[in-house]
Amino acid sequence: MHSDSHTDPLASMPLFADLPPSERALLLEKMQLLSLRKGEFLVRQGDEADCLYYVLRGRLDVLRDGHLLVAEIGSGEPVGEIAFFADTRRTADVVASRDSQLLRLGREQFRQVSALQPALVEAILRTFGRRLANATAGAPPLPPRVPNTIGLCQAGEVAIPEELIQALAQALAQEDGACRVISGADLPSGLDPADTPVFSDWIAQQERQSGRLLVITGQGHLEWDHAALRHCDQLLLCGRLQQASEPAQPVPLAGLEAEMIGRFRPRHIGLLLWRENEQQPVAGTARWLALRPAHLHHHVVLGNRKHFARVARLLSGRALGAVFGGGGALGAGHIGALRALFDAGLELDIVGGTSIGSTVAMACAAGEDPRAMMEAYNYFFLQRKAFGRYTPPVYGLVDHRHVDNSLRERYGTLQLEDLSLNCYVVAANLSTNQREILRQGPCWEAMRMSASIPVALPPWINPRGEVLVDGGLIDNVPTSVMHGIKPGPNLVFMLSPGERWEVKAAYAQLPSRLRQLWQLITGGKGHADFPRIGQTVARSMQISSNSTLVASRHSGDLLIEPPTVPGMALTAWKMGTAQEQAGYEYTCRWLEQQGGLDGLQAWRRGQR
To answer: In what residue span(s) does the Cyclic nucleotide-binding domain sit (predicted)?
Structure first.
């Protein structure tokens, strides 16, 4: 095997770095160099495992059953070693997610090398063992891998401004320490982008020398555009939010983006929508997303460094996420915790929640101040009494029209996708028996779905005829959703229902049907300590929070769990102000224990 890029390509691979140069040279002679174009298959599920592969440069996706992404493999990593050593058939497809080069070692060549180099077998088995250990530690949703090479591509009819390119490059450099912008003008004289092996070597050299690359397209060099984007880990589509196309129609795809969208998996596609100034409203994002399957979308204003810094954190795997759990009136504790964090200067990059946590997440994503959040809380639950109007108990106990009107008044025409931050809301889908993750659509509808407490409110019926209820039924603190959306640090806000729930009432004291009817007619309270419908349902939805507590301890997330004030209950809306203050005071102490804002920022960057 021969490589023009450098004489010892195995030296940069951790798997072979400890081998003497002479042994690496012998191994290299037994290997075959392979080149894959973006989208080409390396192996197919069910194939015989008659060889090992090592990724020299590029990146590959591992797909189970043709579509389920179970792993991403990058430079220096082996491919197919489990099936090779087990002498079984391939258990998944492996597809190049960008133009890649690999080294192939056949079974007979492996026998020859291992007879001469026992250290090679030991190194491979160590890697094999680490992969098995990682697999048995649990299988959370696979977060997107941090991209090394990001390709910028014009979306819509307006070219990408130079100001945007420079602002993003500067933000990435400040976050990572290095970022180089390259375009077709940087190609050495005589280098043809159509010459795949030579061009791949050149791109790999730029990555080694410069770290993260920001690849620019759309400057009139079509061969460069196609070849360069095939070598990118992420496709970042950049469009001017306000376009001249029909308001009710999707924004049409531009030429290059139309070709490239189908070559990237949605999890590797981002959409950056820019505006010239803050006065331009954020609206119509759904028109962009209709034809562009973006994993994340970003709203930025040219000249706003904070906006580009947030995008850089999301691209570099250091974005700070916040997950807010459900818990009824205790949700005021979330607001108090945010007041302490925001007063200290902390910024969140992406948010999500369930039930009352959805309200707080959407308020964060909309840029609301915690004090304004608390005013809205008191108005909604105390003055408007959104959950205080009852109805005959056929479909629910609470008048859903009053709730719906209150939610419409609170959120107006605001859409989830138009919020400043990426935001998700979780509901429980009783038709599919699965979690429903909402990232687009009217905010009031998302809130109504996520907080449709069974029995209290009628369920929500979506356009497909599926039945949705409160997300707390299935995932009260949806951290795994955040882990599946992005890598990196998260703050998890949990609401504790307080002390162990024990009552003085005995089951035998439960009144008869006629007596309960009489109590309902006369307004009698019966046995004051016997659990009521609302208490039982709300408390039941807190059970899943315990599993989140355990998961957070193993994921590296930080947990914020304010104490419950005496007398507080899941429906005690009048005690919201006291609970907010308790959340604030608790988080001030918690923040001090973390070393203040500097300590949290160090944790976010992985420095502690």
So the answer is: 15-131
